[in-house]
C-alpha cells in the first residue's frame, strides 16, 4: 500500500501526447519501464553536455567554413585533393582540445555544476528503480498479474484485484475494506490539491502584462517549484507523503506560519534566480537538439496545438487519473482544433497567399536549375535558400483557410464542451468572439508558444515566486487548514477531492437545497458536481455517501423528467449518420455517432430539415436530446449500474430494423466482433459523461442566467408537447424545482454550390470566416 502513488506510472497503451490527435480509446494499461526511461534521460544529459563542450572547444570553424585553406601534402596524394577539406581537418587534436578546456575556467565551473546535478539524478534514478521493482513484485506476487499480461488489463480490473486483496490479506490495517475512492485519493493526493488551487485561483498563474493583457503562464519549471514548496521540498507543508504537518492544521499561529512560508518562497525564488543562467543554457541547448530536426522536417509542427499545462489542471476532474485525463483531452483534440482554426484574418490570408506565391516562384526556379545542372547545388548558400523557402511556403500555407468549409462556432463549442466538460459561462453565446478564442488558446496553445514559455521559464519563474506567490502565503496557509481532512487508511487529502456536495457544492449546479457551502467553500465551474458524475460513471461499483447519492438521484429524476419532452432515442439514432457527417466525424464508432446525434439534433430541427418519415421534426435542445439518451442508458440505478449498460441502449430501444430501416451504421459498429467489450464499455462511459456534461451545463445556464434561457437562447419555434404525466411531476420532487430546458437556436445550415458541380455539401466547422467559406 505504501507504493500506491506509483500506480500513476502506468499509462494508456496509446500515445495520448498532449499535442497529438486522439487515437482509439481502449482504456488498457501497459507498464512503462520508467527505470529504463530515466536511465536514457541520464544518457541524454551526459550527451548534451559532452557534445556541446566538444562543439565549443574542439572544432576549428575557420577550416570547416573554408575560411582558411588546407594543404594536404604527402606521397600518393592526388593534386586535385590537396585543398579538399575533410571532417578530420576541422577537428582539433585531443591534446589541443584538452588544453582549451583547461584554460577556460568558466567552462570548468559549468562542467562541475553539470556533474553534481548528474550525480544527484543518478542517485534519484537508483532510488526510483528500486521503488519500481517493488511495484513490479507487488503486481506479480500479490495481484497475480504477470508483466507480459499487464497490457491486456484495464485499470478497473487491476483496481478490483487490489480491493479483493485488501479483503483477503488486510494490507491496510486501519480499515477493513478499501474503496475505489480511497485508492484514487492515495494516487492523486497532491494532484487534487493542485486542481483545487487552480480552481480557486489561488496559484498566481494569471498575470496582467502591459499591452498583452491577461496572460496565463504555467511551465514545467514553475509547476515543479510550486510542488517543491508545498508538498515535498525542504520546509514544505507536508511532513511526509501522506500527512500535512500538524501545525498547519491549527488556527492560532496562521500569521506566523504565513511568514515562515513567505521566507521559504523567497529563498526558493532567490535560488532560482541564482541558477537562472545555468538552467537557461540547458533549456536552450535541449530545445535546440530536440526541435531543430523536427522543424526542418516538418516546419508546420510549430503551428500544431497541444493542451497547455494550465489546461490540464483547469480541465481536470477531482480524482481523475492521468490516463483518464489524457484520453478525454485526446478525444477533445479534434473539435477544439476545428474551433481554433475557424478564426482567420482576411488580411493575414491575403499576405500568406502572396508570400506563398513569391516564395514558390523563386523555389521553382532554383529547383528547375538544379534539375538542369546539379552543379548549381555547389553554389554557396543555395541549399540554405531552398530550405528556407520551403519553410516559408509551409508556414504561409498554414494561414490559408479551406475555402469549402462551413463554420458553425456555437456548435463546435458545444462539441468541445462534450469532451473537455468545463467552460466559463461567458463563452456561451460568444463563440465567434476573439476574446473567447484567446481564452481557449490559454488551454490549447501552439507548440511554438509552449517552447517559448519553457525557454523563458528560468527567467520568469523567480519573479513569480518572489513578487506574486509570496503575497499569497496567508491564503495558502488558510487553504490547507480549511480544506484538508484526515481519512482513515488514506491520510490527509484535499476535502474537495471527497466531492462532498453538502460541503463544496454550488447551488447553480443542481445543488440548491443540498449544499451548505459558502462562496469561499464552493468549487467553481461546477467542479464538484461534474467530478462526482465522472467518478461515478468511471467506477460504477463505487458506493457514494448519502449526500452524493441524493444528488445523483436528483439528477436522475431530472433526466427522466426532461426526457419526456425531448426527442426519442430512436429518432436520435436514426439521425446518427447524417449528424456524424455534419460534424466531419469519421470515426464511425457507436458512442461517437450517438454523441454527434445529440449535438447536431437542435441544428437539424431548427433548420427545418425533415426526418426519415418526411415529417417536420419539432425543435428541441441539446439538453433534452441528452436527457433522452441518458434516460435510455440508465435502465438501472446510476451509481450501481453494471458495465452491461452499453448494450442496454439497444435492448431498451426499438429493433434495428424499425429504427434504421436500410441504414444500420451504428448497429453494425456496435455488433462488430472485432471490438472488445472493455473497449466498448469505456467508449460508452466516456460518451455518457459527455452527455451529462452537456446536460448539466444547460441546466446551469437556465439556473444562473434565466434571462438567456427565455431570451437569447430560446428558439422562436416552441418545443413540442411534453405529454408529461402530472403524477410523475409530483413524484419528481427536487427535479421539478428546475425549469425545463429551453430550445437553443443555433441557426440553419447553409449550402454552398460550386460551379460545374451537382452535389452539395454540408460541413460543420468553427467560427464564421470573412471572405472564405460559409457560416451558420
UniProtKB/TrEMBL annotation:
Residues 701-715, 762-776 have a biased composition (Polar residues). Residues 636-662, 700-776 are annotated as: Disordered. Residues 644-653, 726-739 have a biased composition (Low complexity). One of its GO terms (biological process) is reticulophagy. The chain crosses the membrane at residues 106-123, 264-289, 355-372, 379-400. Its main location: membrane. GO terms for cellular component: autophagosome; phagophore assembly site membrane. Keywords: Autophagy, Lipid transport, Membrane, Transmembrane, Transmembrane helix, Transport. It is found in: Preautophagosomal structure membrane. It comes from the Eukaryota. Pfam families: ATG9. It is a multi-pass membrane protein. Residues 750-761 have a biased composition (Acidic residues). Phospholipid scramblase involved in autophagy. Cycles between the preautophagosomal structure/phagophore assembly site (PAS) and the cytoplasmic vesicle pool and supplies membrane for the growing autophagosome. Lipid scramblase activity plays a key role in preautophagosomal structure/phagophore assembly by distributing the phospholipids that arrive through ATG2 from the cytoplasmic to the luminal leaflet of the bilayer, thereby driving autophagosomal membrane expansion. Belongs to the ATG9 family. This is Autophagy-related protein 9. It comes from Dissostichus eleginoides. The lineage of its organism: Eukaryota, Metazoa, Chordata, Craniata, Vertebrata.
